[in-house]
Design a protein that fits this description.
- This is Cohesin domain-containing protein.
- Keywords: Membrane, Transmembrane, Transmembrane helix.
- Helices cover 28% and strands 37% of the residues.
- It folds into 4 domains: 103 residues, Beta-Lactamase; 93 residues, 2-Layer Sandwich (Beta-Lactamase), CATH 3.30.450; 236 residues, Immunoglobulin-like (Sandwich); 87 residues, Sandwich (Immunoglobulin-like), CATH 2.60.40.
- Strands 13, 15, 17, 18, 20, 21 and 23 form a 7-stranded mixed sheet that branches.
Length: 678
């Protein structure tokens, strides 16, 4: 009988223990299972926070533009510039404008006359004479609607936030005032303090010029931005694109905001880098999971009704906590780490430098010398030599001087400085010692141009132009070169005597030396009020429009049917029946290059084995840029490299490599290859 009772007690004890451990085990499993929903909750919360900050940034740009248009309105209402503007006094306008810039806290002020010709700029004093009513979207919109404000492509700066106000006096057009902010490093720091949470970084990118400014502090961080978010980057092109990135060990949510131009689509973007500590987030998530487990354990103890030793139960809960916390932390952190893209210094040589003439388009006065700079945008690599050949039409302009005062080259290492005004060619070879030049942008040299007669002057780089890396081998890392196109004018619209003084502009295709992938060119022109016009758009350089059908409008849109060089021929005729034909060439290439061919030294390799890749492609119209772009994971970003690449894959499995190539009109194509890693 006693044995039977003891057996019942043992059975009851085992059942109670079994139920206790089932409840306790269920609490443990439930706690582990909470990792996924908690992580999902954090992701949703982070996404809402990122979206809110992006909205704040966009609202901040609108608020800045609103402030700028108010400043321009106040300047108009007060007639601040009227006296100097009436007298076309550029010096007086610059002096007074500089004073107003300081007083109003704006980045710069532009003043143009009734023809839209710029008389003064406070941020680029030497750059004046261009016709912003006809060469910019914001100038034309202000002319037609009375004012224009927002963010757009500038003339002397690739991106501007602006407020443009048309001036009228006694019912007649009198001029225009534009208040601007330039998104450079200093301005972006101020912008971030006003509109973004503490610690948030912002970087502005131009589609043509790359990084224009940011509030990142170190040159290394800025170089990484230039490498991974170079012009043509997928991420830069997509409005609202988002990624998790690690930059110099700091975690960020990167959110992209694309800027759209009124004429030719996107011209730039702003990327927000919102701090995100995945280690801290993983620790918080692990703590919450442990807390749930402890609460579940206390419930289990309550149900146990003190049938077990309290010390034993506490030790059991502590053991569960010791297992759950590191598991939750490392599971979550590993998952987060896999989602983050590391923006670190590339172990490979970067082929990302560009050479360009600044400004790339402008209206210059026949009576004055004009200074242009030859600039290098390194894109991330250190360089130590430049060999530049600049060509031009010697009948339209003469190069008076090569200036090196502002050059990043060593003054004692200018090997060649040659001007040949008969041939129309300048050659400059210069260098600097190790560690070379590794800033984002610098001036190699400047040219003093003297226009000789009205016309359209083009400057372009010779094929022998090179930018050499500071790698001990003299590797040419030049990705692309961009020339310039200038309209040489005898002055403003006043005093025009015949149709030969008609000035033609293309806001959509402002640089006649460049290839564009926009097949819809837009032209505008100015001439005397009595003039009438006819025009033709074709691929012949010598077409003569007839004078049978004449129009009074001063704008024209076209659609190119195929790629190639086109010419806009404008016939203008005055009341005296005298006529003249003006021509404006545009280069159009909207066809992507051939998909790159990827050759690999092996299709199957061992982990860590070095693999050699070779890339090639062709383009029939504008030609290829020298750089290829490579992505080593499907959710990664492209980085620039040359036609050869040596890499080793650190993990087993099927590893992909995606290669992209651009032509000179920024069309691109890509190919993908899979490598088996054993």
């Amino acid at each position: 009988m006693g044995n039977l009772q003891n057996g019942k007690k043992v059975k009851k004890f085992l059942i109670r223990d079994y139920l206790f451990f089932v409840v306790f085990g269920a609490a443990l499993i439930f706690s582990f299972a909470l990792v996924v929903p908690f992580a999902s909750f954090f992701k949703q919360a982070n996404q809402k926070s990122v979206s809110r900050i992006a909205t704040d940034a966009e609202n901040g740009i609108r608020a800045e533009a609103d402030h700028l248009i108010r400043q321009s309105r106040e300047l108009d209402e007060a007639g601040v510039f009227d006296r100097f503007l009436a007298n076309k006094d550029s010096a007086g306008l610059i002096s007074l404008g500089t004073e107003e810039v300081r007083r109003r806290g704006v980045g710069g002020i532009l003043v143009a006359d009734e023809t839209g010709q710029v008389l003064s700029r406070t941020r680029a004093i030497s750059q004046r004479g261009d016709f912003v009513f006809h060469s910019t979207f914001w100038g034309r919109e202000a002319l037609e609607k009375g004012e224009s404000y927002g963010i757009e492509k500038g003339v002397t700066h690739p991106i501007i936030i602006f407020g443009a106000k048309k001036l009228e006096r006694e019912g007649k057009l009198f001029g225009m005032i534009v208040s601007v902010q330039i998104p450079d490093d200093d301005y972006i720091k101020t912008f971030a303090k006003k509109y973004l949470p503490e610690g948030t970084k912002a970087a502005f990118f131009s589609k043509e010029k790359g990084l224009t400014g940011s509030n990142f502090e170190t040159p290394e961080e800025k170089r990484l931005l230039e490498i991974y978010f170079s012009p043509g980057s997928d991420f830069n092109e997509k409005d609202g694109a988002q990624m998790k990135a690690t930059l110099n060990g700091e975690g960020y949510y990167a959110r992209n905001i694309v800027f759209e131009s009124g004429y030719d689509g996107s011209f730039g973007n702003m990327i927000l880098f919102i701090p995100h500590s995945h280690a801290r987030e993983a620790a918080i998530l692990a703590f919450l999971v442990v807390l749930v487990f402890v609460l579940a354990g206390l419930v289990a103890i309550r149900l146990d009704k003190h049938s077990h030793n309290t010390v034993f139960l506490i030790l059991l809960i502590l053991a569960g906590c010791a297992a759950i916390f590191p598991f939750s932390y490392f599971f979550t952190k590993t998952a987060y780490d896999r989602e983050h893209i590391s923006l670190s210094k590339s172990p490979y040589l970067i082929y990302n430098s560009t050479i360009a003439i600044d400004p790339d388009s402008a209206t210059i006065n026949l009576d004055f010398e004009h200074i242009v700079s030859v600039d290098i945008i390194t894109g991330g690599e250190s360089i130590n030599a430049v060999d530049a050949v600049v060509k031009y039409d010697p009948l339209l302009a003469r190069v008076e001087e090569i200036r090196t005062t502002n050059s990043f080259c060593d003054p004692g290492l200018f090997v060649e400085r040659e001007i040949d005004n008969k041939k129309g060619e300048v050659r400059v070879v210069c260098g600097l010692p190790t560690p070379g030049f590794n800033e984002l942008k610098g001036t190699a040299f400047e040219l003093a141009l003297q226009p000789l007669k009205p016309g359209r002057l083009s400057l372009w780089f010779g094929e022998e132009t090179a930018v050499l890396a500071n790698d001990g081998l003299g590797t040419n890392v030049l990705r692309n070169s961009a020339g310039a196109s200038y309209l040489i004018s005898e002055g403003g619209r006043g005093g025009m005597a015949d149709a030969s003084r008609v000035l033609v502009f293309s806001p959509s295709h402002p640089n006649s030396t460049r290839w564009y992938n926009n097949r819809a060119p837009f032209f505008t022109w100015i001439g005397a009020d009595s003039y009438k016009y006819n025009y033709v758009f074709d691929q012949s350089p010598d077409t003569e429009p007839t004078g049978e059908i004449l129009r009074t409008e001063t704008t024209a849109f076209f659609e190119a049917k195929e790629d190639g060089t086109y010419y806009f021929h404008l016939l203008s005729k005055g009341e005296d029946e005298k006529s003249e034909v003006s021509r404006y060439p545009v280069k159009i290439d909207s066809t992507p290059p051939e998909a790159p061919l990827i050759k690999a030294s092996a299709e199957s390799v061992a982990v860590g084995e070095v693999l050699r890749f070779e890339f090639s492609s062709k383009d029939e119209s504008s030609g290829l840029q020298a750089t290829f772009y490579v992505k080593l994971r499907d959710d990664g970003v492209f980085f620039p490299t040359g036609p050869q690449l040596f890499i080793a894959f650190p993990e087993k499995g099927e590893q992909s490599i995606t290669v992209r190539v651009f032509d000179r009109a920024n069309n691109h194509s890509e190919s993908r290859k899979v490598i088996k890693v054993k």
